[in-house]
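[[Local backbone shapes]]
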Amino acid sequence: MSTENIDSRPLSESEAEAEARRIIEGLWKSEPVATSTSFRDATPNPPYGTTPPVHQDDRRIVPAWAAGVAVASIGVGAGITGIGCGIWLACQGFAAVTLTSVLFVTLPIAAVATVVVAVGSAIRGVKAANSETHHHYSGPVHQEHSTQVTNHGKWFGRSNTTVNH
């Protein structure tokens, strides 16, 4: 940038317009200048600085709650993994269903159910044999049978049915 046109006096209106036009035209005519966007310092780093190294003890203090959380998370993870493996094995078994596998699973259940029903029937039979039930009625017996149907509405309606025995 040249300093020959710099005056200390203010420019007139026409001089200001001419100077602005000259600056704008100069910007449009000039070629862009390439600038460096990176820099690499090739000097080697020193092995250590001016401060001597200081020994730092390797004592890691872990709070009790953090250790507890770590152990609990390992236990929960192992438990969930075991449950997941069990579910996977069950699904593998369901995927390989054959008549033999169905019978192998259901026959013990059916056998236990049969034994339970047989024992229940035997107990009920013993109770029925030991107890005598007699129904003795004395006096007149009156039975009344009446049915009353009430319809509401012409086409769409509700029916109320009352049955008395």
Q: What stands out?
A: The helical segments are 13-29, 64-95, 99-130.
